Here is the input.
Amino acid sequence: MGLSRYTRRTFFRELTLLVIAAIWWVPFYFLVIVSLKPDLEALQSPLSFPQEVDLGNFSTAWHDAALGRSLVNSLVITGGSVLALIAIGSICAYTIARRPGRMSTALYLLFVLGIILPFQLGLVPTYAVMRHLGLVGSYLGIILLYTGIWMPFSVFLYTGFVRALPKEYEEASVVDGASTMRTFRRVVFPLLRPVTGTVAIFTGLIIWNDFFLSLIFLNGTDKTPLPVAVYTFVGAFASRWNLIFAAVIVSLAPVLIFFLVAQRQLIRGFTGGIKT
Amino acid sequence: MSTTAPGLSSTRETGRRRVRSSRGAPWLWVVPAVAVVLALRYAATAAGAWYAFTDWDGISPHANFIGLDNFRKIFNDPASRGALEHTLELAFSFVIVSNVLGLALALALNRTVRTRGLLRALFFAPVVMSSLAVSYIWQFIFSFSGPLNGGLGRIGLDSLKRGWTGDPNWALWTIFVVLVWQFVGLSMVMYLAGLQGIPEELDEASAVDGASTFRRFRKITLPLLAPAITVSVTLSTIYGLGVFDQVFALTGGGPVDASETLATQIYKQTFAFGRFGYGTALSLILTVLITILAVGQLAILRARESRL
Amino acid sequence: MASVTFSDVQKTYPDGTRAVIDLNLEIDDGEFVVFVGPSGCGKTTSLRMVAGLEDITGGELRIGDDVVNDLAPQQRDIAMVFQNYALYPHMSVFDNIAYPLESQGMKKPDIKDRVSRTAEMLGLTEHLKRRPRNLSGGQRQRVAMGRAIVRQPQVFLMDEPLSNLDAKLRVQMRAEITRLQEQLGVTTIFVTHDQVEAMTMGDRIVVMRKGVLQQQGPPELLYDRPANLFVAEFIGSPAMNLFRGRLDDGAIVLGDQRLPLPQRVLDERSGLAAYRGRELAVGIRPEHLVASATANGDLPRLAADVRFTELLPPERLVYATVQAPPVVTDDLLEIAKDVDAAAVERLEELEEEQFVLACARFDSSEVTPDRGTYEFAVRVDRVHFFDLSTGAAVR
Here is the structure.
């Protein structure tokens, strides 16, 4: 029947898809060309191919939007949150998965429901409490927030995976004289690498790109992550598209590089994590 | 392991240790995770649900219970009512279009296309980008001197030119475009994964049996894709209802509340106007909305899944 | 001292299943004891209780002089080789073997020393840097052994470590394990479902069935003096031939045939007196059905219908049907079930037809009986008797 043959029809299908993809990427085209334009040209003829190229836009954006500092902030916040999610989530899941009984089932349910529960309602009280505790505008506060929001997801994924892990390795380890912590650290956790990858990528990406929460909790401080920094910059430099786009490109660079490098993992992380 | 039933106490003399030791992961290990989830999810949500019925201004330590006052105000306030409408419109159209397009792309991309990897990456790239960045790019595109108007001018449709994001009739739809543009790739990738799980032989057998392409799709592909559809639709619903970033960055909710969504309203009322109680009430409505629609959808789709 | 003592040990699961019932056993320091029996007999459960991987529901388990019922596995100073080896897949062979030493806090240079010596003992030196997935089954098995040996524990526990190897390798490893154990002198408990393995490896064999210890002792004891029908049928390959016969005045009656028993045999088995005129199970090992031509004229003859023979030099197995009712007890059905459905069918067939397919072990140099009637000489001095209802041996 030749369903899998590369026919002429397939060729046209492919061509059409490539054209659609090209059109899809037109916004990026503009992103790049506008970012390269010097001020005057940006104002007068924003849509044309750049006559002159002004790379100074990037350094201006870098300095005026404090992108360097925001980059560090994003790294600290995302890194800290992801680490917490992995460390705390995995040990919790290990206990739940390996100790059968009503307590474990109840806890598991707690986390599963936590995934479904929309986070918006708790936002305002959390803000108020954190402000009271002086945590608004601090790394600790926002990391705590992200950790709390995504913990159910992390525990859920880890639990499923641990349950599927054959008990033999742990048995061998305890018989070999290792304490529970050692068994977890040296035997179980390394075997959880796929899930750790999924949790890290999925939550890491979402936290890195988050705007809403970081706006509420970090706006106006020196701990703003990249999205808020760009927002502030746009607020100050409205309509100066060349500078704005330079800032946007810089802020997108880390994710884009990561995407190019780890594309497969990323996509697998999204579909795999969601499928479970 | 379950705890031991006590063994017989031996009453011999010296030379024997009898040490009781715990086995398996200690319960202590669940404490951090449980604590943080209970506090930041459950307790916070419960508190939110409580404050929705108060007149709290976020500063004073006391909040007076005012019953359904907030909700009455919400339904009387055109801005809030509008936000509710817009939220539903936006979510509804976003879910349908992005899933249909995503599915179409996945089907087109599924077999024998040689540049599959590249195409998948091209469509998925916007998904991993910050919504803010995406919104600003499109703000430029929609701007009066931006490419959209430029393109319209080129093909002679000057009359259609306008400031898209500033037009009360079109503002919401600019957001719609951005959402679809950004997230079609995600649905596509999920459906691709779902399609991978369908053995080629089934489709081939059906074709050999003489079924037309459309029939094959309806009877074989679609039913087997049901789980992926459930997941994708439910997730896009949850996201679509709570969308904030794109609205905030693209139109700010304007012009004059024309593109306000519940999420942006919550932000404004709470953090711009300081009406914490009112904002929480809005949050409650959003939460209930999401829960009902998402869970309801999940139930319906899951039921259809098992029927198929 | 690393003896292992079971005192009235019980294992009952929450749903009521009794996996180990009233186990009483003393294993001396340095002994190699094999636990053998069909699946579900409780041998693995017993082993795991010694390891501390299963809780003990009742009774007392002692390693040396210490009661270890509540002791965690980490603290028992035992080493275990798992059926699937449980080698840490993400660690190299070296790290796998070093792991127990690290867990005990040994210093790096000492660890290196011990591991290299152990590796050398097992022929693993060139493989130290490799990962388990890159090793053959036999090599993996040796790594598992290495991990156990390196600790110099009080007790070795082995849970069917050879079941995943092919036949040739299995035979080779059996010898290696036996040799190692002798060399190291560590108390070893070895679990297997293969009675040949049990017989060739153990100083002492413990036969278990449905959680109950059937008989324990050196291989010859179990072979020559099985305590009950189960052990008689389980130990020995090919299995013992079992007939339902009647004890007449000084003779066994099998079907229509009478096999007179010499007075000496009757005297040796005083228990037989109670069975005069009653039915009982008669067991004759294949090697005790001998070729008529070369046998002593005094031995009674048993007529049978030769069906087929199997040549396995240096012996030949002759299969012939004897017109006598077979012994079909629940035990035997269960053993058959463990083999396959066909075995069960055959057993049921035989029960209906009321004859026994007996197996005789001839030397391959002997004349092969033709198909058709043949008379075996029966070594009645080596016949076994069992009570039909209890299965217990009659002595």
Notes: Residues 1-21 of chain B have pLDDT under 50 and may be disordered. The two ends of chain B are 40 Å apart (CA to CA).
